[in-house]
Design a protein that fits this description.
alpha/beta, 2 domains, Rossmann fold, seven-stranded parallel β-sheet
Length: 359
Amino acid sequence: MKLLFCTQALDLDHPVLGFAHEWILRLAARVERVIVVPIAVGRTRLPSNVDVRPLHRELGGHGFSKLLAFRRIVGGACAAREVDAVFAHMVPRYAAFAAPFARPRRIPIFLWYTHKGVDWSLRLAEPFIARAFTASSSSFRLRSAKKVVTGHGIDTAWFTPPEHDHRPEFDIAVVGRIAPVKDPLTLIEALGVLARQGLAPKVVLAGDTLLATHDAYRARVLARIDELGLRDRVTALGNVPHESIRDVFHSATCFVTPSLTGSVDKTVLEAMSCGRIALTCNESFVDVFGRLAPRLMFGVGAVDGLARLLATHLSAPRDEQLELGRALRELVVREHDLDRLMDRLVAEMGTVLAACERR
């Protein structure tokens, strides 16, 4: 199989999309060739059967110029029959834009999408795709017979517990961009509740704003930390390269996300794979956690509920913390391992390609 893979960024150090690089490596080990079409490229470490064709290298600028570059690169690859399939990663527009070049040549288009949002671009793309791969039923909420629930893809060989898992330096880790949808203020307010109870957990924050429009929100978060007298309990690292995120997980007992995204967040699964206790308000994790959900979930914006969970887990004996962490890691290894996902994706795409050849 020769695969064209469209993604936003190909960069080992990208704080949010660094995992896409590992996807390419795993796919390249399973197919004949991968042509990657990213908007941005940073540091890479790729085998010889991966060909990177960045949009920015064709035409600079934004908007229409990138659409022209997309037409030149993707349309050219399809016209020359360099690819057997097109894979759009997280951006439905890529699937729609590829359709005029791929569909007439009977090149199937596949989409990976994990988000609760159903916008115009997803509705536009759905008629043109052969399969919509997603991590969970709630991660793809457009009604479609093309939806295939695969689980997430976590590199469980990398995201492992530390070799000597003594009590970590921090009590709580938070990993992710600073934005209203991530709702860090719920955690900050919960820390304030704990402080009034005489508890003072130490927190490490990894992440920063990705959009200039969120800079004011970051200032609001930092101001609230100061107002509650928590500055000496919170360590802000800013953006951390993807390859270093494991160290952040290792440095804390609990991982917390009050995120409102509503889909299975891979960062939660990465923390679990590291044997960390993961606390979330994300409704998608009710099914992921199963019987463990009541011990790990709080309501959206539920400051007191989060504070109670933190007090319970942080005061537990270390052997109980480690036992829960081991159970969470086993869940990820069983249901969300990266190699398992890659095998599933390649098999599903191969089935579609075989059916296309029979027609």
